[in-house]
Amino acid sequence: MAKILLVDDNALSCEVMEDVFKAWGHQVYKLFVGTGVYEFALKYKPDIVLLDVMLPGMNGFEVCKKLKEDAHTFPIPVIMLTVLDAVEDRIRAFDVGADAFITKPVNYNELKSMISSFLRRRENCRYFETRRAVVMSFLELIKFHNEDLYNHALKTAYYCEKIALLLNLSREKIEVLLDGAYLHDVGKLVERGKEHPEKGVEILKTLSMLNEIYPFIYSHHERMNGTGFPEKIKRESFTTELKILILVDEYLNLLGKEKDKKRTLDILGQKVKEGAFDENTYNALLQVLEDEEFWENLGIN
After folding, report:
1. In the β-sheet with 100-103, what is the strand arrangement from edge to edge?
2. How far apart are CA 211 and CA 24, in angstroms?
3. Nearest CA to 67 among 57, 77, 81?
């Protein structure tokens, strides 16, 4: 049995879907406005959110974006539900982090299959969820210690996932990457200098469940041309996931210094030419940023 949060301002539609979900053996929560969905999800932790686009208060796109911006609600699958079938709406749904998209009138066979798929993924990823809980605890510690460091971790995870999806990484690899992105700077809790990667691994070394994310913590300042630290490793040692993390981390650090996106991308592009970062990953980042700019120009955040 799953806990499904159904958000739709159409009471009749809600009742019909609630009856169907209960017949499938699920527990159903209902909300009729976008305002308060994030707070509800944070408190009750539904397994799936079925979210209508056209909502009073906050629309579905805004709600989804808010859910996906918080590390605690980010893992919850969001299925966008709408009468609209335009390509632009689908693009926008995925751009704000939606996991799936289904149109009204609902094809319940399709929806049942979609829900079952997300639930199977949940069962297959119990180990990841256990690890994620530990990661989230450390992330809260980072937030308490330094909110700027916490915000950097969230932004890093956000862009890492966007790029990983464009590069067609498996969900399992993305989950490991996200945990690594959340904690890549955990060593800065005790050391702000060049030794923070080693300190990060020392902090977590007694937790064997975090073994898979050690490379992200230890090697996020390495460069593919061997100019990084602490080991000066070269191209053949880099996984696709590590290539993504080191690029995103560098982009955000440069952006913080330069305060100008174009200047930042020019510098980063030059470093790509010098072999420090992967060109395909850089191009995927450019695509993500181009998509963001497209929606910003339309007045959509």
Report:
1. 27-31, 3-7, 48-52, 78-82, 100-103
2. 38
3. 77
157 vs 126: which has the higher pLDDT? 157
Q: What is the largest CA-CA distance in the chain?
A: 62
Query: Are the C-beta atoms of 282 and 197 separated by less than 8 Å?
Result: no
Question: Of 73, 76, 79, 64, nearest to 113 (Cα)?
Answer: 79
> Given pLDDT bands bounded at 50, 70 and 90, which one contains residue 85?
low
Number of alpha helices (DSSP H) and beta strands (DSSP E) in the chain: 13, 5
Whole-prediction pTM value? 0.61
Span 38-72, pLDDT tens digits: 999 999 999 999 999 989 989 999 999 999 888 78
* pLDDT tens by residue, 209-238: 788 999 999 999 999 999 999 998 877 779
d(CA 134, CA 136): 5
Which residues make Cβ contacts (< 8 Å) with residue 97, sequence separation at least 6? 64, 65, 67, 68, 74, 78
List, in sequence order, every residue forming a beta bridge with 17; answer none if it has no partner. none
**Two tokens at 259?**
């305060």
Domains of the chain: 3-124 (3.40.50.2300), 127-297 (1.10.3210.10)
| DSSP calls for 192-220 | -STTHHHHHHHHHTT-GGGGGGHHHHHHT
Hey, what amino acid is at 66? K
Please name the residue that has the structure tokens 């030059």.
Answer: 270
Alpha-carbon span 60 to 81, nearest angstrom = 9
Please determine, for residue 301, whether its predicted confidence score (pLDDT) is greater than 60. no
* Least confident window among 84-93, 179-188, 226-235: 84-93
Place of tokens 């056209």: 54
Distance between CA atoms of residues 288 and 76, nearest Å: 22
